[in-house]
Design brief:
This protein is an alpha+beta fold. The protein folds into 4 domains: 2-110, Beta-Lactamase; 130-230, Beta-Lactamase; 235-303; 309-449, Histidine kinase-like ATPase, C-terminal domain (Heat Shock Protein 90). The protein is 43% helix and 26% strand. It has helices spanning 2-7, 26-32, 36-39, 54-65, 111-129, 148-153, 166-170, 172-186, 232-269, 272-303, 313-327, 348-362, 395-402, 413-427, and strands at residues 11-15, 21-24, 70-77, 83-94, 100-109, 133-138, 143-146, 191-197, 205-215, 221-230, 309-312, 332-336, 342-345, 370-377, 381-388, 431-436, 442-449. The strands form 4 sheets. A 5-stranded antiparallel beta sheet has the order 2-1-5-4-3, with helices on both faces. Helix 11 (313-327) packs parallel to helix 12. The relative contact order is 0.05.
């Protein structure tokens, strides 16, 4: 028996009937930090942490002094001052006449368990208090848990949740939409999609829905955790802004077309001096139209970003060159790009290259603008260099490219175009560099992350 006590993993100590410690095993020394020779002769109160009430100790002594076994958790203090939790059992040892001869106390250190429980309670409070709808299901599509927001939205009671399947809660039609995404998550994939949920006698709600595989310690997928974020108000705001933007652009275009038409009539019929003024009006109106069109592209890019797809950079560059030369036949554009350079990116990359090449041609002060496009493939990036022989980019627009300045109410169409380029490149976590050439002109270089198709 003594060898078993000595080898036990739990702290064991023995006291006399007055509570004076007469023995402590090695596990007691390891857990509390007290050597047996310094703890023997002491009262267990040396372990008091101050966390337990007087009532607790009164109940303890009342129980064991009547010859009963005491079994409860206790929050004690080590010799170092560090607190620890223990599941404590104290049993009286009695003589043949029933008198108590000693008490044996066994403490199982449960500090790690209590800390895990505390963390779990923290997570539970965070999940229950979240605005997002959060739930988890197993392979049979039965609920493992669901927070209050999820239960309220689906009119579920917590007492009946464990008996329900996902199809029971959300309905057959909605379940058929969700099921393929659930299968992907159960295969170990994180999934995101948007869905409009319809409920009887209530307005429709738009949700951003995300599924994450729920795995055990070995990595085996046991179920799926779902989060649903309500985007209804955000979507409505976006729709209102899009409608307003469309209306304003329509009105501006109609009014400017009227201005351009009258300016052309003046140009055809008026004396030369007045005709020159009408030309200025036409140029200004065309710039406003160009700016409005670029604003539309920016709004579309920000509000409805495209998904990555397979693109062929060589084909994209060729298409851009053909388009620009069709509009500006006097330009000279040279191209150096690896043939059949394919990558995974967004289609707007073509629009960014087009904007840089057009800027280089339009703002050249020579009769035959010179532009060179050089595409270089590196290990993790693709470098697209657009160099020209023009007067250079104004400092205000250069700051837009470098990211030191945002677009503002005095930025004209070329600055807005460069801002559009910056937005496209930033959308795919790319970078954009700018420098003046040694002799004349400027060089703008988008650096795009390379993802192989």
């Amino acid at each position: 028996f003594q060898r078993a006590v000595e080898a036990a993993g739990h702290a064991i100590y023995i006291t006399d009937p007055d509570g004076v410690i007469t023995y402590a095993n090695p596990a007691f020394e390891r857990i509390t930090g007290y050597d047996s020779n310094e703890i023997v002769g002491q009262n267990p109160r040396v372990l008091k942490s101050g966390e337990m009430s007087t009532t607790y100790y009164d109940r303890l002594w009342a129980t064991i002094s009547r010859g009963h076994v005491w079994e409860e958790e206790i929050h004690d203090q080590k010799k170092s001052g560090e607190l620890y939790y223990a599941h404590q059992t104290i049993a009286p040892l009695t003589r043949s006449n029933g008198d108590i001869e000693a008490y044996v106390a066994i403490q199982q250190d449960i500090t790690d368990q209590k800390e895990d429980e505390f963390q779990l309670r923290q997570y539970e409070r965070a999940i229950e208090g979240a605005d997002e709808l959060i739930a988890a299901i197993d392979h049979e599509r039965r609920y493992l848990f669901a927070n209050e927001a999820y239960r309220d939205f689906h009119d579920l009671g917590s007492e009946s949740l464990s008996e329900m399947t996902l199809a029971d809660a959300i309905g057959t039609e909605t379940y058929e939409t969700a099921e393929p995404n659930l299968e992907r998550a159960l295969d170990g994939e994180a999934v995101q999609y948007r869905m409009t949920r319809t409920r009887s006698h209530r307005s429709d709600r738009v949700f951003d829905i995300r599924y994450y595989p729920l795995t055990d310690d070995t990595g085996h997928v046991e179920g799926v955790v779902a989060t649903m974020r309500d985007l209804t108000e955000q979507v409505e705001r976006e729709q209102h802004l899009t409608s307003l933007d469309r209306m304003l652009r329509h009105n501006i275009q109609n009014e400017l077309n009227l201005v351009l038409g009258h300016a052309q009539m003046i140009d055809d019929q008026a004396p030369d001096e007045i005709a020159e003024l009408s030309t200025t009006i036409e140029e200004s109106a065309n710039r406003i139209l160009e700016q409005a069109n670029k604003e539309r592209e920016i709004v579309e890019l920000l509000s409805d970003p495209a998904d990555p797809t397979h693109i062929n950079l060589a084909e994209i560059v060729d298409a851009v060159v053909d388009q620009v030369l069709g509009e500006h036949p006097d330009a000279k554009i040279s191209v150096e790009v690896p043939t059949d350079l394919q990558m995974l990116s967004i289609p707007e990359v073509q629009r960014a290259i087009e904007e840089l090449v057009k800027n280089a041609v339009i703002h050249s002060d020579g009769r035959s603008p010179q532009v060179r496009i050089t595409v270089t493939k590196h290990e993790a990036t693709v470098e697209i260099q657009v160099a020209d022989d023009g007067p250079g980019i104004p400092p205000s627009e250069r700051r837009v490219i470098a990211g030191d300045s945002e677009i503002d109410d005095v930025t004209h169409s070329s600055g807005m175009g460069l801002w559009l380029v910056k937005r496209i490149v930033s959308r795919i976590d790319g970078d954009i560099q700018f420098r003046e050439r040694d002799n004349r002109g400027s060089m703008v270089t988008p650096l795009l992350p390379f993802y192989d198709t």
